[in-house]
Amino acid sequence: MITVVGTGTAAAPAESLAGAELVVGGRRHLEAAAVPADAERVVLGPLAPALDIIERHHDKGSRVVVLASGDPGFFGIVRVLAERFGPGALDVRPGVSSIAAAFARVGLPWDDAVVVSAHGRDLRTAVNVCRAHPKVAVLTGPGAGPAELGAALGRGAGAAASGLVAQFPAPLGRVLVVASDLGTGDEHVERVSPAEAAARDWGTGVSVVLCLDESRALGAVRTVAGPAPAPTRWALEEDAFTHRDSMITKFEVRALALARLGPRLGELVWDVGAGSGSVAVECARLGAAVVAVEKAADGVERIRANAAAHGADVQVVHGSAPDALAELDDPDAVFVGGGGRELPGIVAACARRARRSVVVAMAALDRVPAVRAALTDAGLDCDGVLLQSSRLAPLPGDVTRLAATNPVFLLWGVRNPVYREGVAQ
């Protein structure tokens, strides 16, 4: 058996190391442990060489002990060991995870937290989860610590775009709880704003950062752990949103737009020319981080009101596209509404930066060729439909007629290679 010991907030117990002929772990774990004098020590760095050494000892029947932080089965080394040697070869002895310890230090339950690892991974997923969810634990790593997380969360705040200001909240009321050296004499837990986190050098002792909306940190009693369940309904009726003179994406159009956008946790969606923000709010309800861009001041307030009414986290940029897009992080998907003469240029700017897809809704036939060209010129595969629907409407005498809605063109462009469930094919 390969014994995997999670050290938790203390050194590995001596009995777990007794008789070990090979002990593998981080330098601080090895220094703190009672490693037998005659045992070979391997300091974990690149995994491949360490796994080869473990395999040689394992094949000889030697007693191997692997030291890890916290619970090694949670974003830890158990996965790679099980893949290499099989789960049956492992004797896993978990300790208290850094996530559980961090939440304990601030007195919060974490069954409703979303946990995301930025250790050795792209930070953008963690950033987007933090934007979209009120309680997140981020496992950090080199180049993906509190400073980088804080800087990314604050990106766009106060950025000028052609004289207009990208008006972000700070951001969405989030606070970062930075936990350093948990379980040691140097343990330190500190609440800071994203801007304060970005301005600090945090050293190497940080292993987890909590990103919290403290007004919603307790939340409701849950049956299923993790992020909140997906909404039971989407493509909500127009009267679910405040809007001006029926200037809102109709629910039939919104339903297909959402299907082509595919908003989900860990991704970023732009709603450009957001109007009432109905598409932005629905994308946020489905788990995505969302930025709504709107040039009208009353529209900005309307979007914020609609987001608040639905409990959705939407960052709102007051400015005109494409200039107002310059300081924003690249999106996974973009929805573009409206039909002015600037539309093809806005679509082109969005299509150049979208990682996955762009969806455009417009009423004017004349705009379709130029918008289609903007999508294809950016390397996207383009398709589209003309949506025409008739809704049931009551008539006197307890009878019903069909009331036609205005036709809308919906075009979408999809980036190649084709994505299936988030995996590039």
Any overview of this molecule?
The protein is of the alpha/beta class. Helices cover 28% and strands 26% of the residues. Strands 15-14-13-16-17-21-18 form a 7-stranded mixed sheet, sandwiched between helices. Strand 14 (289-294), helix 11 (297-309) and strand 15 form a beta-alpha-beta unit. Helix 6 (123-132) crosses helix 7 (146-154) and helix 9 (251-261) crosses helix 10. The protein is elongated. Residues 156-170 and 420-425 have low confidence and may be disordered.
Please give the alpha-carbon distance between the first and last residues: 37 Å
Low-confidence region ranges: 156-170, 420-425
Tertiary shape: elongated
How large a portion of the residues is in β-strands, by DSSP E?
25-35%
Class from helix and strand fractions: alpha/beta
Provide mean pLDDT, rounded: 89
Task: Please give a handful of descriptors for the protein shown.
alpha/beta; disordered C terminus; 425 residues; five-stranded parallel β-sheet; seven-stranded mixed β-sheet; 23 strands; single chain
Give a nutshell description of this structure.
The protein is of the alpha/beta class and 425 residues long. The chain contains 13 helices and 23 strands.
Secondary-structure blueprint:
Layout: E1 2-6, H1 14-17, E2 22-25, H2 27-32, E3 40-43, H3 47-60, E4 64-68, H4 78-85, E5 90-93, H5 98-105, E6 114-117, H6 123-132, E7 135-139, H7 146-154, E8 160-161, E9 164-165, E10 175-180, E11 188-192, H8 194-198, E12 206-212, H9 251-261, E13 268-272, H10 278-285, E14 289-294, H11 297-309, E15 314-318, E16 333-336, H12 343-353, E17 357-362, H13 368-377, E18 380-387, E19 390-395, E20 399-404, E21 408-415, E22 419-420, E23 423-424
Parallel strand pairs: 1-4, 1-5, 2-3, 2-4, 6-7, 13-14, 13-16, 14-15, 16-17
Antiparallel strand pairs: 7-12, 8-9, 10-11, 10-12, 17-21, 18-21, 19-20, 22-23
Helix pairs in contact: 6-7, 9-10, 12-13
